[in-house]
Specification:
The chain has 432 residues and is mainly alpha-helical. The protein has a domain at 1-37. The protein has 16 helices and five strands. A hairpin with a 4-residue loop joins strand 4 and strand 5 (189-195). The radius of gyration is 25 Å and the shape is globular.
Amino acid sequence: MTDPSDAIEKEKRCPDCGEPLISHPDYRSWCPACDWNVLPKEEEAEELPLYERLYRRLGDRMAADLFKKVAEQHNLTPNVSAARLISILLALSIHVATLLLVILALVLLYVGWPRLPMVLLALLALGIAWLIRPRLTPKPERYLTRADLPALFGLVDRISQQLSAPAVAGIVLTPEFNASYGVGGVPPQPFLKLGLPLLSLLDDQEKVALLSHEIAHGVNGDPTRGFLVGMALESLSWWAYILRPEAIFNSGDGSIQGLLFGLLLVPLMVIMLLLSKLSEAMLRLLLYLLFYDSQRAEYYADRLAADVAGSKAARSLIDTFHYSRLFQTLTHTFVTNNPAASLFDAFKTAADALPQGEIERLRRADQLTQSRLDVTHPPTNFRQEMLARRGEVPPSLTLSTEEADAVATELAAHEAQVHREILDAYEATLYY
């Protein structure tokens, strides 16, 4: 249903299809018939990192077909599949390649010592092994513990117990309109990153749904979050990046010596380019093999969140992510016009006042760009439909008024610091 305020200047027609535009003096005019002007032009051409570009291309081609398959399944718990076994073997081979370089270096040193060419080859092999080594995810630099957030951790622990998930070691309150679950440190421990701007829009049960979805990543069997496969993905992305030469031929300073040196390096640059392309091809293959299990795991996390918080809260939580674009716009307004006021209060006021037509445009913008909480999430419209097909599920965990107030008080105590981080981060993008 279109909000009456959206009818302002509705006699305007779409330049592409000629149908009436949804128009409002404070928001972007757009066409509900053909989606003209739903997205800004610069966003359509946005450059993404390699991992995200590859995953998005796969998503665009496979998400709809995959949704049909997953929607027919009543059981989304992890299982062993041929694709998963192949992906594990491929991930093992990637890590073995690094180990073989180390072994080669040791053999060269043992056989060739103290001959300089053999020592240099051994050092080269060790250097390459060091560059392409698997990288363990460290703990967050700053995180809050149960002593800092007793009420919030009390809720997190109740959800973890209900989902039989590992206990969360720490929580990071971030300036992002986002949330995530990760494992870091030695030994690996779970950490939550919760965006305070996102939390500021959620009601009590939506907070339960958000925490439940993120904690569910500890038990939903997502292979991309596993130690073995996750490090393989990071390694391949890094290989593709560091091996790709800036140019096949570089004349240097334009002198004869520079030209000759550039010509001598051409074979090496070609080999590096081929290795970079090979790494990218292996990354594509691994992502393709993992795509089904990763998407299934996200749908399963949504289902577990609905079991804990109720399906109504889980569905409304997904809708809330459409407001990330509003948050970005509002941040710009505050940095340039009113940095001293409360960004969180203004954000909640702006979200409550958003016309229905603008909310619909934000939904369509996310659908057009396949927007996700992170690159592994299915399109939001598919996530909504998956939950709707289950029917209404009552919550198994609800917050009392006292618990909800205690959580809100703890979060409010960190708003000033996060508010400053948001403004500082945005100002940095203006000057650098």
